[in-house]
Amino acid sequence: MSESMRALVAGGVGEPLDVLRLESRPVPVPEAGQALVRVRATPVHASDLHVLRGRYGFAPGFPTVGGHMECVGRIEALGPGVEGLEIGERVVVVAIPAVPGPRVAGTWQEYLVADTSRLLPVPDGLSDSSAAQLAVNPLTALLLVSRELDVRPGEWLLQTAAGSTVGRLVVQLARHLGVPTINVVRRRDAVEEIKALGGDEVICTQDEDLVRRVAEIAGPAGVRKAVDCVAGQVGAQVSQVLAPGGELVVYGALSTHRQTDPAALTIPLPARSLIYETKTVRGFWLNRWFGTASPADALSALSEVRDLVADDVLSIPRGEPFPLERFADAVAFAEAPAHGAKPLLVFDDDRDGGDT
Fold first, then answer.
1. C-alpha to C-alpha distance for 133 and 295, rounded to whole angstroms
2. I need a surface site. Which of 144, 155, 266, 353 has the fewest CB within 10 A?
3. Alpha helical stretches, state H, the chain
4. pLDDT grade for 132, boundaries at 50, 70 and 90
5. In the sheet that 64-65 helps form, which strands lie side by side, from edge to edge?
């Protein structure tokens, strides 16, 4: 093992391509309870870029290695007293910062150290592309449907942004669980795609009225369970179609993706509806979930996700690989509209022929 490694480092807050630089850094040494992982592939998430722009829910100390979510690699070394893991074992590193709690080292580097409680062994039959994307989007879908809302078989689930990565995973998971879905999309050309995935009903806001269509599908009483990733007026309409006592979980705000004014990040909710119909609207943030879940519960949920992907219940879109030196292209790809794939920063490793 070489004594130095490449790392993609942000010098401060700003536009990613203005603040990111490739640097040579010493390979870290694992301490007790830690493992050194040689990274194979790591995604460039929109949230990673929000962190660099100072628009996310936490701010790292700068300079910082980029990549604050997940990666896949192999264990290169173990710290003192570590048991249950082996050198050479293939693992997913869950680098999602727990709020409250400490953060793991950034994933945009050749080697990183992580607590063993943040490592999930994965089978060699699972591609690097799928393994590198296990810990964010599929886990979010599982938690929203099965934990946050506990949607039961036969019970309608309404979701917005159904064409997003999480939205498509929600469709697949709901179908597996026997949960019928009402899926809201923005574009007419997405309707057939969502139906082909197993979505039961699809509403296109381009030419359909969301409130009226939900009443036609689920009845005038509305739906009891809903998830929203859009916020703004769409989020308000979803709250409107909730049945009395219904629950809405908001986990994103795509309608304000380019907004920098905090006052614009809103969902206008009618107070009378919330009060007299006792509806519940609450948020979900994966980082905060990791800060409150026990390590055992977190690994249990991740293991469930891994098995669902390995069993082809959940299909993760194949990532688009970019060598670390082409990080500028990866960032541009991450922000391109409707590309349908996640950019992956990949590292050469002649000893491993895994499929990225």
1. 19
2. 353
3. 16-19, 46-53, 128-131, 137-142, 165-177, 191-197, 210-218, 232-240, 271-276, 286-292, 295-310, 327-334
4. very high
5. 20-26, 4-10, 64-65
Q: Does 146 fall in a domain?
A: yes
Contact indicator for 224, 151 with CB cutoff of 8 Å: no
- C-beta atoms surrounding 33 within 10 Å: 14
Which tens digits make up the pLDDT trace of 51-108?
999 888 888 889 999 999 999 999 999 999 999 999 999 999 999 998 877 677 899 9
Helices 210-218 + 232-240 axis angle, to 10: 30
Do 36 and 87 have their domain in common?
A: yes
The torsion defined by the Cα of 146, 148, 150 and 155, in degrees rounded to 10, comes to -100
Between the CA of residue 202 and those of 118, 156, 199, what are the distances in Å? 37, 13, 7
Query: What backbone phi and psi angles, to 5 degrees, belong to 9?
Result: -115, 135
Q: Which of 287, 317, 356 is nearest to 69 (CA)?
A: 287
Pair 232, 173 in one domain: yes
Boundary-marking domain end, from 284, 319, 336: 284
State the total domains in the chain.
2
